[in-house]
Amino acid sequence: MDAELVRARRAVSVVFAACGAAFGTWLARVPAVQDRLGLTTGQLAAGLFGLAAGSVVALLLAGAVITRIGSRVAAIVGAVVLCGGLPLVAIAPSVPVFVAALVVLGVGNSTLDVAMNAHAARVEHGYGRPIFAGFHAFWNIGGLAGSGADALVETWHVPVTVHFPVAGGVLLAVALRAVRTGFLRGPDRGQGGPAFAWPGRALVPLGAIAFCGFVAEGAVNSWGAVYLSEVTAAGPAVAALGYFAFSVTMIVVRLGADRIVARAGAVSFLRLASVVAVGGFAVVLAAPVPVVGVVGFALVGAGVAGIVPVAWSAAGRTQPDAPGRAVAAVAACGYAGFLIEPVVIGVVAGWAGLRWGLVSAVVVTAVVAVLAPALREGRGSSAHD
């Protein structure tokens, strides 16, 4: 294997980890930021809306940006904005500034996310075999590392006004070094072409698959601990263990998913992933005690782990002339699921209970098995399909 490609693969993995750590740093210390500013629930919700709005706007523009400046430069821009957004959130003197800072954080996260995935597609193309899921495993690893560091600084009573600037500076230095020394030089395929183009019919089912995968992830991220606490009467520690188990199995499966896809094919892999995830949700819904619910969430993590990486990888191969634009289009569909599903679950839960709310995620996850053949039709699967 070409040494430049190997170096690029390592560099992209590092950037994925840095992105996950930066976003995980924010998520784990939301209560501390809320306390520092004395935010009401409504004011915090306004900030979170700003985060979502910034993310969506950046996703809509990311494809055009990458087509113009390339994934390497876009990754640098995204890293600077994301890591620069952390101290802005920490030192915000008022609610309007706090909301604006979260808009910046959302823009940076989405820009870096699409840029590093577009570059991952370029590296995978050079390898000539599936390696995409491994990159996403490093995002989860970074997220857990960021959360773990947050727990440590909480124990040491380090204020966010110190923690976020330090974390942002360190993660920015790590990401920039990886991009500058490891990312592939030269223009991306399709760079310099038209910034906007109709995404093509082949991307529609891939976007739907990404949507379904993010729905499952969003359901567990937003409601997993609440479900274990309210439905199975789990204590705070056990309730948090559900998300931890979900994250660990995601990492383990993503580290090995590329080999499975290479051997069994993407279509078979997605069908199996859907079955495992739905089975995991079934265990959660039937859980009589907290420990069974934790096992169920672990199974969900194992099932959903490969859905999004496979869809994004297929998107990059479906439009080889503009992989960045294709990845951005599929990513936008995916993040729509991440944003919408927690709200849907909350509405249904308020009407019929949290158990019924979670059923919506089960139904959507099952759709992945139905959509899986689209990877074959769109020539986004491996030769085994």
UniProtKB/TrEMBL annotation:
<feature type="transmembrane region" description="Helical">
    <location>
        <begin position="236"/>
        <end position="257"/>
    </location>
</feature>
<keyword id="KW-1133">Transmembrane helix</keyword>
<feature type="transmembrane region" description="Helical">
    <location>
        <begin position="73"/>
        <end position="92"/>
    </location>
</feature>
<dbReference type="Pfam" id="PF07690">
    <property type="entry name" value="MFS_1"/>
</dbReference>
<feature type="transmembrane region" description="Helical">
    <location>
        <begin position="12"/>
        <end position="32"/>
    </location>
</feature>
<feature type="transmembrane region" description="Helical">
    <location>
        <begin position="196"/>
        <end position="216"/>
    </location>
</feature>
<feature type="transmembrane region" description="Helical">
    <location>
        <begin position="327"/>
        <end position="350"/>
    </location>
</feature>
<feature type="transmembrane region" description="Helical">
    <location>
        <begin position="356"/>
        <end position="375"/>
    </location>
</feature>
<dbReference type="InterPro" id="IPR051788">
    <property type="entry name" value="MFS_Transporter"/>
</dbReference>
<feature type="transmembrane region" description="Helical">
    <location>
        <begin position="269"/>
        <end position="289"/>
    </location>
</feature>
<keyword id="KW-0472">Membrane</keyword>
<keyword id="KW-0812">Transmembrane</keyword>
<feature type="transmembrane region" description="Helical">
    <location>
        <begin position="44"/>
        <end position="66"/>
    </location>
</feature>
<dbReference type="InterPro" id="IPR011701">
    <property type="entry name" value="MFS"/>
</dbReference>
<feature type="transmembrane region" description="Helical">
    <location>
        <begin position="295"/>
        <end position="315"/>
    </location>
</feature>
<protein>
    <submittedName>
        <fullName>MFS transporter</fullName>
    </submittedName>
</protein>
<feature type="transmembrane region" description="Helical">
    <location>
        <begin position="155"/>
        <end position="176"/>
    </location>
</feature>
<dbReference type="InterPro" id="IPR036259">
    <property type="entry name" value="MFS_trans_sf"/>
</dbReference>
